[in-house]
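Q: Got a minute? One more chain.
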Amino acid sequence: MIDARPPALGDRAIPVSVVIPCFNCVSTIERAVSSVAVQTRLPVEIILIDDFSADGTTELLHDISGRYPKRWIKVIEETSNCGPGRARNTGWDKASQPYLAFLDSDDSWHPQKLEFQYSWMMRHPHVDLSGHACQVTATPVPKIVSYAISDFECTPVSLGQLLISNRFSTPSVMLKTGLPNRFARNKRRSEDYLLWMEIASGGHCATSALPLAFLYKEAYGIGGLSGDLWGMTKGELDTYRLMAEMGHMSRLALIGLYPWCLFKFLRRLTHTEIRRRTNTGEAHV
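A: Always. Here it is, folded:
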């Protein structure tokens, strides 16, 4: 792993806290942290939340913290496994900066991500949450394409659009730390989707087509909580139910979204099967 030790923050620092939930991630967390350390504009702090790991992650997080300037990386240890949503809440509550960006321990960022996204949000202070596209890659060290800051333009995302599909991948999200919302404490599937919709119901959200995050596995169908396609679908159905209970949409809209959610499940199932056959040589696309 490249030692991406940043110099003193100085003028490169922007008022952003980065939160990374960590659970049994010894093989990927260094890549994630390094992608933050090579940002063209550095965050004031990185908060690593160890979600009661059992594979040496805890020790590695403290080791990584020691490689960088003092207090730049903060390690918080949970006393029980609470899931990524509650771990992110822990980091959110400890964040000292007015803007917050989320990164998952098995993903990484394009070096220009924080500079572009923060600059855009400064020019659009009415926006509470922004996101951008993500690139799925099987390459351990993805090719980095340099962009101009003018390439990062966002379009609004309404609650209605979010109800049809989740427009925000968590590693793409930057939001205002002072928002009162949080990830649902007792929800382990689709908790991020629920949060984005809650924020959109009372605020402004936007997204860019520029791919400034790298995902090293498909969004669904391979490992992790999202690998359980039916469980993922049940999580979305529960999210719609909660949105209706909170009064953010009508019961009629809820009834209409149920068959749409089931259609998405069948589509994901089909895509996953095609991908599996392609990867095993059973089919050629």
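A: Helices lie at 29-37, 57-67, 84-94, 113-123, 159-164, 191-202, 229-245, 251-279.
Q: Perfect, thanks.
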